[in-house]
Amino acid sequence: MKHRILSLILAGGLLGSLSLGAFAVSPKTAAAAEEDAPLRIMAMGDSITHGYINGDNGYRKYFCYDLQQAGFTNFDMVGPNNSWTSTATYDYNGTTITYDPAHAGYSGYAIQAIGNRSGILETVFQNTYTDNETGKSGNMLEAYQPDIILLQIGTNDVLDAQNSGIGDRLENLVDQILPYLEEDGDMLFLSTIPDIDVSVRYDWLGAYQWRDGSGLSYESDPEAFTAKVQGSIDSYNAIVKELVEKKQAEGKHIRFADIHSVVDQKTGLKDGVHPNESGYACMGQYWSEQVLDYLNNKTPSVTGTTTVTLPETTTSTTETTVTTTVSTSETTPAATESTTDTETTTTTQTTVTSETEPVSTEAMTTTTTATNTETAPVSTTTTTAETPAPPLGDVNLDGSRNLADAVALTRYLIGDMSLSYESYLQADVTRDQLLNGLDLALLRQWLLQEQA
Fold it and tell me: Among 413, 440, 424, 444, which residue's Cα sits nearest to residue 23?
């Protein structure tokens, strides 16, 4: 980082109720942070980063707004695009958002130049830029000197079925970026890509018909064609995660981000590829949570309006008091890792609509049937055992509700893991079709009651 590391550990704790789902920095902490040079953040990627659809900067306006709402304003969005101003406005649900529009997003770009696509790699490192604010010149990273880079790239490679060598191209790009992020506090966030709604955008996926010689098309076999494209997305996202883990093992300043987990294919896309405003809002909040989580070193707050004490496990007598954050050391079979996380909850998580009836939280009972026989003077009772439905709150679907489920929900809320559709339904204990701190608080209350 090109300036003193920001001291953003939340001495004042999380202000407001759980449902607010945002960090809040105390006035004292915020004042101290303002004495530092601004944190320089570069949003880098393709059209999804650029803000394709309505020209209103996509997720980046929400990202800036969510940071501001969290009490953190000492940051500077940097990059060659929209760099002539540091202030733009957008009307959002009756609220005027003021944000910094500078960025490094390029519509239609691939990881590196391939086929007819221009590449982010060449754009960043083979051109000369000058930062109007500092006067520094050089390649993009030399000129703008970002402390944090939010990189989401690869959608256009997948659209063009350029799957061969995609991991090598991504690693080459990452390897060229990382040497510019070696100071304390620097960080590259490398993200997955969202799904593509093939039924809406099959006209952009023609390369899948001929690149492998199969001739498969959406018109000839929609199901098989959709599965083929989805396989490319899933494979690439797995490559992203594996690459981050590899570079972390090498001691590099890199973190995994999972935008794929927050943009719903059916409700979060405008045209089958690019997010709509709801999708962009989810992205903005997710990115702000990742950045704040990193800056706060995942240090939990122990103050707030709602306090819940985790129950003791059979192998540990340690209790942890939390508000909307949790510090746990688990030895249960489902959670053997030691984790220390700062949790930021949200009321704008992707909505999941369930057509199934809510699972009862009451204890399941067996059905008994009295059967009279002609040969026996006494009646007998036959018990028919029903397969018990998993109790509400059984997030890991192991058939019981316990501390491991609270840990799983906590990890989901801080973006450390994803949930299947069934797990999402089980985690929504408030039955409001949202996952946030209210669900976590209620789940822990149940666990306390069951331990009593």
Answer: 413
Low-confidence ranges of the chain (pLDDT < 50): 1-34, 298-386
Tokens found for residue 317: 């007598």
Give the CATH number for residue 279.
3.40.50.1110
Query: Domain boundary residue among 248, 266, 295?
Result: 295
Rounded Cα distance between 406 and 205, Å, is 41
Same domain, 173 and 248: yes
Is residue 284 domain-shared with residue 401, that is, in the same domain? no
User: Who contacts 135 (Cβ-Cβ below 8 Å, separation ≥6)?
Assistant: none
Residue 375 inside a domain? The answer is: no
What distances in angstroms separate CA 222 from CA 206, 228, 236, 415, one per listed residue? Answer: 13, 10, 21, 33
Angle value at C-alpha 404, between 400 and 410, nearest 5 degrees: 125
Decide the pairing of beta strands 148-152 and 39-45.
parallel
Output the pLDDT for position 420.
Answer: 80
Q: How far, in whole angstroms, is CA 83 from its chain's centroid?
A: 27
What is the pLDDT at residue 294? 93
What are the respective helix, strand and coil percentages of the chain, to the nearest 5? 35, 15, 50
> For the chain, what is the domain count?
2
pLDDT at 108: 95
Structural domain of residue 52, as residue ranges?
38-295
Could you tell me if 205 and 330 lie in one domain? no
Chain centre distance of CA 309 = 26
**What is the rounded distance in angstroms from the CA atom of residue 346 to the CA atom of residue 414?**
10
The two structure tokens encoding residue 267: 């409700």
**pLDDT value of residue 34:** 41
Q: Across the strands, what pairs with 129?
A: 138
Please tell me whether residues 136 and 230 are part of one structural domain. Answer: yes
